[in-house]
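Appendix B, example 12.
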Amino acid sequence: MTARTPDGGTGRRTNVRRSEPGAGGAPGARRRIRVLWLVAAVAYALDLGSEVAVVAGLEGRDPVPVLGSWLELRVQRNPGAAFGMGSASTIVFTLIALAVVVVVVRVARRLTSTPWAIALGLLLGGAVGDLTDRLFRSPGGMRGAVVDFVAVRDVSVMNLADWAISCGSVLIVVLSFRGHDRGTRALPGSGPTGGGPHTWAGEHRASLHRVRAVPVRPALRRRLP
C-alpha cells in the first residue's frame, strides 16, 4: 500500500510504502522449507542406499575394518533403538519415529531459522529411514529390525539414520543454548490475541512502519510579468 504525506514544509512529498503482512517473509519461509526437505531427502537417501549396499555386500561376512578395531563395518539387525537399547520395545520406537515425522512436518511451514531447518531436516530424514526399516524389513508389522553397520569399537553399532538423528539432536541443543530456542512462529490468527511478540502479527509490526522516502519535484511556480 502506498500513501503520500507532506514533509515538513520543504515542498517535498514522501511516498510511504507499507509492506503487506507476511509479504517480506514468504520467500525466506519457502527457502527454509526447501532446506528442511533437501536435508531430509539427502539423509534418507544416504541411509537407505547404504543399507541396501551393506546388506548385499557385507551381511553374513567378516567385519571390514576402517580404522582398525576402533571403527569397522559390521552388519547387525537391531530391533531396538540406537546403541541397541530397548530391543524388546520395537513398536514403541516405531510410534516414536512416526510421531517425530508428524511433528516435523507440522512445524515445517512455521520455521523462522535456517539452522533449525537443517536440524529438523536431519531428524526427519533419520526418523523416516528408521521408520522404513520398521515397516518393511523382517518381521514387518511395525516390528522390523533396522540395519546397523557402523561399529564404533565395542560400544555401539549404528546406521546413518542414527547418525542423522544424533547430529540433529546435538544441533538443536546448540541452537537452544545460543538463544535460538524458538525456531518457529505462530500462524496468522493463532493465539488468543493474534498480536503478541511471537505471533505472526507481532513479527511483522515493524515492517508495517517501514517507509521509503522518494523525493518529488515541487510544482513549478509561474512567474508574473
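The first strand starts at residue 2 and ends at 6. Confidence is low (pLDDT under 50) at residues 14-24, 186-221.
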